[in-house]
Every structure is written in C-alpha cells, then in structure tokens.
Amino acid sequence: MDDRNLILTPLLKRGDSALRKVNPAVVTVVPGAAMIAAFMVLGIGELPKSALHLVAFASSAVIMTLLMLLARWLQASWIKEWALGIAILLSLAITYFAGRI
Fold first, then answer.
1. What 8-state DSSP symbol labels residue 33?
2. Per-residue pLDDT tens for 48-57?
3. Is the CB of residue 43 less than 8 Å from the CB of residue 57?
4. Interatomic CA distance for residues 42 and 28, integer angstroms
C-alpha cells in the first residue's frame, strides 16, 4: 500500500465532512462533474486523430444527453442505468456506418 493513501485519506474525509456541513448538494455534484471532466479530456484528446473519432465522440454525447433527458421526462431510472451501454452501442454503430460511406 502506498504511504500517500494513509496521509490523504484522513484529509479527504475531513474535507468531505466539512463540505457536507456547508452544502450537502456539493458532495453529490462534485464527483459527477469530475467524472464528466475526465471523460471530456480523454475524448477531446482523441478528436484530432480522424473524422471518425469526431463522429464517435459527438454521437455518443448527443445520444447520452437524449437518454438522460428521456429518463428525466419518463421518470424511468432504468434508462439512466442503461444509458452508457446504449450510448456506446449506438455510437459504435453510427461510427461504423459513417466509416462505410
């Protein structure tokens, strides 16, 4: 085990409890925003490689957004759980057919 984990874990726990006292909503928003930012950075790094990378990135972003809006509109939590898999499969299919053109 890395010694840094032993030092950082108590610090992160204190920061988490302090944030929960100030604003509990921040604790739910920050991890989601961090995950979106991480995927955006990885995705944007792939864009210059080819037009198909751009098609895959854009189509998956649009599909995921539409699925999240649909899940909210229908109040169907199962759509949120399956959205990533559906977005990946559909964007792969779109990218495949875009490559065939």
1. H
2. 899 999 999 9
3. yes
4. 22
